[in-house]
Amino acid sequence: MISSKPTDSRSTGAAVAFRGVSVAYPGAAAPAVRDVDLAIGGGTFAVLLGPSGCGKSTLVRTINRLVEPTSGTVLIDGADARERDATDLRRGIGYVIQAVGLFPHYTVAQNVGVVPSLLGWDRARIARRVDELLALVRLEPARYRDRKPRELSGGEAQRVGVARALAAEPRVLLMDEPFAAVDAIVRASLQDEIARVHRELRTTIVFVTHDVDEALRLADRVVVMNAGRVVQTAAPDDLLRAPADDFVRDLVGVDAQTRRLASERPLIER
Ligand SMILES: Nc1ncnc2c1ncn2[C@@H]1O[C@H](COP(=O)(O)OP(=O)(O)OP(=O)(O)O)[C@@H](O)[C@H]1O
Ligand SMILES: [Mg+2]
Question: Which residues form the ABC transporter domain (predicted)?
Fold first, then answer.
């Protein structure tokens, strides 16, 4: 069954845990994130699912400290994220967002090599790593490495964004609606790629979507949020079989039974 993948003992991903994390933006009527307790095991593919404005992006950004919790603690491999230098922390955490944000004047290779360059890797090592990553996201290095972002399709640009986020071998990869802006066919192929990359690298992935099918397809653990709170954390099958409340039941939809049947066939070979 696709959701019951055992924890891999070779896992290189870091564990991420939230202890009583709340975030209140200044002047907001209600906190964006409320008292979240959540543990994401090293190497887990976790997907945050929930309606617009429920706090998914805010929660994800507390991991790389683009947002600081108002109260509570974020732990990465058991260590308080606040005690790490923020820049240093961010170089060790890949981050992919919907608007890819490639540097327009850099080539594909320069974009992918940004963090390794900042880390002072030598040129030959960066070049090797860039080619390895382009191959990993199925962009033939010889064809793509010298192109500029404007010479890429939307789906190719997203692949470069994923390669860039993976460049310095991050132990945690944050992906905030990374495939929302591409069409359904490209999206399905990008989903296949990220599932394969996860299988190969065993990095911890925290992926945000409001697409239920995308969540069920990719996740080891689905984390359902509503109005700043985590309302259920479960493997996809368990979410469909036993939604915690009416909100989750409505979210996964009336055709949950159909989805459950479909999920019993391997959508993605794992
Ligand atoms: N920088 C900010 N300052 C003030 N309020 C913010 C800020 N960022 C987000 N918010 C508010 O916090 C709440 C949660 O926002 P967040 O972006 O985390 O939601 P989301 O679940 O990612 O939504 P979406 O699916 O639309 O991306 C929303 O009410 C939003 O308006
Ligand atoms: Mg968001």
Answer: 18-252
Q: What is the pLDDT of residues 227-254, one digit of tens each?
A: 999 999 999 999 999 999 999 999 987 5
User: Ligand 1: which residue has its CA nearest to atom 25?
Assistant: 52
- For ligand 1, whether the C-beta of 22 sits within 6 Å is no
CA of 49 relative to ligand 1 center, distance in Å? 14
**How many domains is the chain partitioned into structurally?**
2
pLDDT tens digits along 105-150: 999 999 999 989 988 999 999 999 999 989 888 889 999 999 999 9
| DSSP symbol at 150 | G
Q: Is 99 a member of any domain? A: no
- Any residues with CB less than 8 A from the CB of 181 and at least 6 apart, and which? 98, 99, 154, 158
Which residue CA neighbors atom 30 of ligand 1 most closely?
A: 53
- Ligand 1 contacts CB of residue 32 (under 6 A): yes
Query: Is 154 found in the same domain as 44?
Result: no
131: CA distance to ligand 1 center in Å? 36
Per-residue confidence (pLDDT) for residue 4, from 0 to 100: 39
Could you please report the per-residue DSSP string of 196-246? Answer: HHHHHH--EEEEEES-HHHHHHH-SEEEEEETTEEEEEE-HHHHHHS-SSH
Q: Is 31 in the pocket of ligand 1 (CB under 6 A)?
A: no
| Pair 160, 258 in one domain | no
Give distance in angstroms: CA of 53 to centre of ligand 2: 7
